Amino acid sequence: MKTKGQLAKPQMFLFGFLLITVSLPPTVSAQSAFSFSAGAGYYESINVGVHWNYSKRSSVGMYGGTNFRLTDEKIRCVGLDYTHVYAKPILWILQPGFSFEPQYWTQDDENYNFKNLCLISQAILRCPINEILSVNIKGGAVLNYAIETERKQNTTVGYPTRWNGNLALTLTCRIQSAKP
Amino acid sequence: MKRTLIITAICFAAGCSKVDYVPDNPYANIPTVVLMHRGNGWNTEFTENTLPGALYGFSVLDGVELDIQISKSGTLWLDHGNEVLDCNGAVVGCFSQMSDDEIEVYNYCDDKVSYYTLESVFAAMVAQYPEKYISLDIKTQYCDISATAEEMQRMADAVTALVTKYSLQGQVLAESSSVNFLERVSEEHAPVGQALVVLEDLDQGLSDAYKIKARAISYSWEAEEKLTVESVNLIHQKGFGAIIWVVNEPEDIAEAWRMKPDVIETDNPEFKKYIPND
User: Fold this and answer.
1) Which is it for the CA torsion B262, B266, B270, B274, positive or negative?
2) Which among B117, B67, B53, B115 has a CA at the least distance from the CA of B87?
3) pLDDT at residue A5, as a whole number
């Protein structure tokens, strides 16, 4: 009862690779700075990540997450992340932005073992606490493709939701300020 | 952006599941019906998807399965391919882009009819085999990709009108992979048993069938994920009929029969000879 989805692996990796590379400016090497993140999200689970801030506004990174089996399912995810946050606050000190996250996630429970690829497109509100720390609230849409489904029983039928919503909260710690 | 956040927060708070589960809706399946694939099955004395082929199929099994196209005039024709061919086998156009009159020009080769309408089969069925069944394989119209959705909805309306005209409620299935076709049939509460064609992933197929309110799953016997007694029971448990195609070999016939699907399509005119007694 194991079924592979129709999205080929080369297409998945090409998509993620293109998303990251096309966003990099030619002067990227002169402005590098790193940050770490930790947070929780509906699709990101409880996660930690590392990000390369190639400008004051933009970063690329990767993260991994798990739900630590806090529910009946075992959920794991790894994702790439492109984030762009505008400098000018829209309200108080809140800076708007957006992010794109191609993510691979798995859900294993008594009924199914799903392996999926999704693209999370989100709006961001960043709240800088100081020059190093900031809190990001993210919300948006998720487009999901099941790569492989393995049904473990013959009483329950389900399939990963194609379009869904997502909400996430992350704390970002910048370890080196980007050069202007 | 604020609106996006609010909508997302509401969705999140409402508990949008990462997995869409199909609820139980137990279905008391009917005795298995056996249909002759493309009308004539393996019998080469007849041509597939023709009226004589269909009449032969009606005479041998419980009914027939036929492939359906639609013309620019809105008439449903029998054929497997989208293209209309001349007597030399050259493509002269597409059904969906040719009127009935234009198709008729190419319809006679050596006094033999190449293309029959579905209406001619329905009329003969009502007159000669009123108790039999027919399954329509609704072919997706690819000749004008930009108009595919409209073409499939047009096909749904044409099938509904024809089934209603001949009072064939309860005797006609329509198998399709087109969401546009199936949703239209569902929305119109058409007197047709609409079945979603599932080529590989049964779980995705059941999930999709639930969303578009299909009544049955049409599943390939040759699919990578083989059907089992348990999976057919699961299909029934979720409220859908099970159609299996195409089952031809004696050992396959015995295996498929024991699964108790609702419909089996075959090319083998001796199908019933291989039905197990147990």
Assistant:
1) negative
2) B115
3) 62
List the structure tokens of A88. 């000018």
| CA-based radius of gyration for chain B | 20
Chain A residues with CB under 8 Å of B27 CB are none
Residue B22 · residue B207 · CB < 8 Å: yes
pLDDT, tens digit, 9 for 90 and up, residues B213-262: 999 999 999 998 899 999 999 999 999 999 999 999 999 999 999 999 99
How close, in Å, is residue B242 to chain A by CA atoms? 15
Report residue B65: phi and psi, to 5°. -115, 135
Q: Which residue has the tokens 């509460």?
A: B189
Q: Do A140 and B8 touch (CB under 8 A)?
A: yes
**Residues of B whose CB is below 8 A from A112:** 19, 203
Nearest to A3 among B12, B20, B201 (CB): B201
List the one residue out of B243, B222, B123, B101 whose CA is nearest residue B177: B243
Half-sphere exposure of B72 (CA within 13 A, CB side): 14
Q: Write down the pLDDT at residue B1.
A: 53
Residue A11 scores a pLDDT above 70:
no
Residue of chain A nearest B204, judged by CA positions: A159
Residue appearing with tokens 């049939």: B185
Tell which residue, B205, B212, B213, has the closest CA to residue B232: B205
The three-class DSSP label of residue B162 is helix
Please state the ipTM of this predicted complex: 0.73
Residue B244 structure tokens: 């299996």
CB B81 within 8 A of CB B89: no
Question: B8, A167: Cβ pair inside 8 Å?
Answer: yes
First to last CA, chain B: 64
Q: Give the Cα separation of B53 and A143 in Å (integer).
A: 46
Instruction: Give the tens place of pLDDT for each residue, B111-138.
Output: 899 999 999 999 999 999 999 999 999 9
Q: Determine contact, residues B74/B146, Cβ cutoff 8 Å.
A: no
- Are B163 and B191 contacting, i.e. CB atoms less than 8 angstroms apart? yes
Query: Would you give the DSSP letter of residue A91?
Result: B
B4·A140 Cβ contact <8 A = yes
Q: Are B266 and B253 in contact (CB under 8 A)?
A: yes
How open is the CA angle A26-A27-A33, to the nearest 5 degrees? 125
**CB atoms inside a 10 Å sphere around CB B167:** 12
Do the chains contact at B7 and A165, CB–CB below 8 Å?
Answer: yes
Find out whether B192 and B162 touch, Cβ atoms under 8 Å. no
pLDDT at B9: 52
Reading the block at residue B126, the tokens are 């009502």
A66-75, B66-75, B181-190, range with greatest mean pLDDT: B66-75
